[in-house]
Amino acid sequence: MNLMSLFRKRSSAPVARDRLQVLLAHERSVIGKSDLLATLQEEILAVLARHITVDRDAVQIKMDRGASVSTLEIDVEVPLNASKAGPRPGGTPSVPASA
Amino acid sequence: MGKVLVVTSGKGGVGKTTSTASLGAALARGGENVVVIDFDVGLRNLDLVMGAERRVVFDLINVVQGDAKLAQALIRDKRIDTLSLLPASQTRDKDALTNEGVDKVIAEAREKFDWVICDSPAGIERGALLAMRNADVAVVVTNPEVSSVRDSDRIIGMLDSKTLRAEKGEQVEKHLLVTRYDPGRASRNEMLKVDDVLEILSIPLLGIIPESEEVLRASNMGAPVTLNNPDSAPARAYFDAARRLKGELVDVVVPLDRKGLIGRLFGRRVA
Questions:
Q1: Subunit contact B189:A24, Cβ cutoff 8 A
Q2: Model pTM?
Q3: What is the ipTM of this complex?
Q4: Following CA atoms B37, B119, B198, B202 in sequence, which dihedral angle do they give, to the nearest 10 degrees?
Q5: Residue B251 DSSP symbol
Q6: Cβ(B138)–Cβ(B132) under 8 Å?
């Protein structure tokens, strides 16, 4: 330990505080709504998979919370040859890895 | 009707069990009727910290499953007769605990005691959820360290969404207990300050427990630090916290261990 290091201010705590503030601001917004969105995504996929072949990544769900109105945006990308042969009432949902 | 208090943190090793035992003993010494319940099935330790490990006959799961009555399973503390312990099971599967079974045991304990203190397991899984489920009050134990603060934030979110009170649209009364605090390092900006942690987590402060060798000494001896050395700095901090839990207004100070001149000169060299 040299003489200078005795005087140098070792301030790691402010770094910790700043990192936490940024991280938690992000995590709170994600975790708060992840339950609902994840559930919606799974259930919408399951319904779609009964009728068409659809990629997992082709279903995007977004929720925007406004002051007076919240919007739910569901974006499904359907490939050209997606429809499955014949009607499948009550068929088991299956989600292929790729369309 | 007693109050149900959960001692929780998310992260392991921050002082949940120490705080459960110390706060329980401090409340009991103030004349309150207290039961401490260990929810850490498979990794029970509250019995050991309280020095009752050789007196365990029945446990929480026995009571939940109806194999033993609550009164049979309770272990009364040998030092304070208003303090009782309900140990966790060390061997059985934690799936043996059901919501309904736990609710029933807590309801019965609430009738008999002024305070029902639930020592939560670490994590955010089923065991932690069962421990917080019936809580009226939560003590969130946090070390002034990034991973502990992050996990506490997560647990606060669960207290607001996964408890019976939350389901009824009510609030669990949340308190922050900062443990292993070193005022010297905090003042040198080497450790998060209590104010930083409070600002980030934004729940009211219950107390600040200073880092102290007395805590390890007490657990070595099998006694809560509030009984093993009531005059020590951490014990005084826990006594203050217990008074605040009862609603008293007590100024928050960080007690320090009193050291003699010799201790001050050589105390830090030993480690």
A1: no
A2: 0.79
A3: 0.82
A4: -70
A5: -
A6: yes
